[in-house]
């Protein structure tokens, strides 16, 4: 386990830096392509870090003999959570043109009844 530690620690720091960078609103507004790329990199970096952390935790909790069974279920959940493509949280639908929540044709129809 200790041989993975030099690989995982920089990945944790890098992920924290990406996450902190995404918190700046001006980066999201001025560089939307960079924001989407950073979001994809952050989601890709979550899986190896989560696997290493949960492996260490499972071995410490239930021992090395039973940890494989717990990790098999957990890694399936982690794969579904992080590896399946997700829609971006920064993607916004174009706003409908209209007044309030109703688009113009529906608003006109509601006013002329």
SSE diagram, text form:
Elements: H1 5-22, H2 25-30, H3 32-62, H4 64-83, E1 98-99, E2 102-103, H5 104-111
Antiparallel strand pairs: 1-2
Helix pairs in contact: 1-3, 3-4
Structure description:
Helix content is 73%, strand content 4%. The chain has helices at 5-22, 25-30, 32-62, 64-83, 104-111, and strands at 98-99, 102-103. The protein has a two-stranded antiparallel ribbon with strand order 1-2. A hairpin with a 2-residue loop joins strand 1 (98-99) and strand 2. The chain is flat, with a radius of gyration of 22 Å. It starts with a helix and ends with a helix. The model has no long low-confidence stretch (mean pLDDT 77).
> Low-confidence parts lasting 5 or more residues at pLDDT below 50?
none
Tally of domains: 1
Strand residues, percent: under 5%
Structural class: mainly alpha
Q: If you compute it from the alpha carbons, what radius of gyration comes out, rounded to the nearest whole angstrom?
A: 22 Å
Q: Roughly how many Å apart are the termini? A: 71 Å
Number of strands: 2
If helices are DSSP runs of H or I spanning 4 or more residues, what is the number of helices?
Answer: 5
| Biggest sheet architecture | 2 strands, antiparallel
Order of adjacent strands in the largest pleated sheet: 1-2
Basic shape: flat
Briefly summarize what is shown:
The chain is built from 5 helices and 2 strands, in the order H-H-H-H-E-E-H. It is mainly α and 113 residues long.
What would the keywords be for this entry?
single chain; two-stranded antiparallel ribbon; mainly alpha; 73% helix
């Amino acid at each position: 386990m200790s041989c993975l530690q030099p690989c995982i620690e920089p990945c944790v720091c890098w992920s924290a830096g990406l996450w902190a960078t995404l918190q700046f609103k001006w980066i999201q507004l001025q560089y939307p392509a960079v924001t989407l790329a950073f979001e994809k990199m952050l989601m890709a970096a979550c899986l190896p870090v989560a696997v290493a952390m949960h492996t260490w935790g499972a071995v410490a909790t239930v021992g090395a003999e039973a940890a494989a069974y717990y990790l098999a279920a957990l890694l399936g959940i982690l794969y579904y959570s992080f590896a399946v493509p997700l829609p971006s949280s920064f993607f916004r639908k174009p706003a409908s043109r209209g007044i309030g929540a109703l688009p113009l044709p529906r608003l006109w129809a509601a006013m002329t009844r």
